[in-house]
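Retro notes, item 3 of 5
We never archived the inputs for the glutamic acid complex last cycle. Fixing that now. Sequence and ligand:
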Amino acid sequence: MTEVRTRFAPSPTGFQHLGGFRTAFFAYLLAKKHGGQFLLRIEDTDRERLVPGAIRFIVEELGWLGIQIDEGPSREELKAIGELWDGAPEIGGPCGPYIQSLKLKRYKEVAEELISKGFAYRCDCTPEMLERERAEQMARRELPGYSGYCRTREVSADRPHVVRFKIPQKRALTLNDAVRGRVHWDSIPLRDTVLLKSDGFPTYHLAAMVDDHDMRISHVLRGVEWLSSAPVHLLLYEALGWQPPIFAHFPLVNGTDGKKLSKRSGALNARQVREMGYLPETVLNFVSLIGWAPGEGSNQEIFTRDELIKSFSLEGINQASGVFDATKMAWMNGLYIRNLSVGEFIERCKPYMELAGVQVPAEQFAALAPHVQERVKALTEVAPMLDFLADKPLTREMDSMFQKGIDAPKAREVLNRSLVVLEALPDFTVEAIDQALRGVATELGLKAGPAFGVLRVAVTGKTITPPLFESFAVLGKDTVLSRIRETLDLIPA
Ligand code: GLU
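Structure as it came back at the time:
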């Protein structure tokens, strides 16, 4: 096989949700499987829909996901379009520019070549004329589209105009799609489409084909929404005498409601899931499995990056739409968190603890980390579970103390007895605390659950914490006793 070069070619019109990033994952996995290159190309030709910061978002989130971009916009290119940010990586490469708005000359040159070879023509039809034509076609129940009025006219290059591709209607075409197999068209479903707009910007059809050629892309992986215009693309390659790449059109991603994944259906983007405490390896694993499976008979769900790269193939992409199931992703994140070494877990928690403003002494964090790691599905859950270790006054969810037969006098009894037995302990170890407090519950005729519930709120402030006795041992006798005393003052007489 010739060198495998794939690309992710987003339009910087917003902050892609994970369904959109899946294209990048597939392209990356395919390139890496074959020891090839993964490129990032910015398709910013739709000037009205540009969103400042969208390129930064894409580059940073791909970086977070560990997806190395082999070729892509250089800092100079980013600067040229006013989108350079502090800390932007220097990517670049031999086939630049990788930002389409910096390549207008090249697109114009190709459009001119097509005109001179008779495959394209200038058209100066006004929007009003096109509108009228469209209305007439609708009235005649014809497929709407440009009639080809300017095909035989000589439109001067000095007049405002667009460049249209001359599309032969009576032409059968076949595409051997790497995902969908043989796709055949008896005739071309599109009319003479615009290649170059009157503002000098190319449309997707021209720009993407020129770039895929210039950047020596071997496999074009894109969403199925582009399949209907694939005939135009094949004809363009033919007109230019270029070898087309292998096309792979893959299905959409739906939400669990069966509808196309969108912001409205709760789709999340990479930055949101990062902020929510997901690990990048979860996201890469989970999103890669939307609409792709490693092959017949395998139901493996957990893949390291290397395993994904090794197992990935275009044949494994499903023809049916994939489903994004956020609940399943949360489950998978819990699994990935539990698989981290304790040291790694602590490291990964740090930025989230910082963001939450929770400072926990390192030793105490280390002592409780293995217990916390077992209990969370996201790194953001750690700070609220451990903030009772911070050296600051505790706010207590007092109401949650009084349930399952516990009233104020009972709570006082539990706390008073616990004070006595804990104070008497020579060693404040997990086992000793355990034994002493179970003794208190039995003595008072209470079940362990409600009795320990009182102690949990008294000492940690909340109902969800790491295991109680471990937490007490880590806090130390003095703190535990003084927190119990403080609570006694708070319970209404
Ligand atoms: N800019 C196009 C999009 O965002 C890229 C399609 C392609 O990959 O060719 O949909």
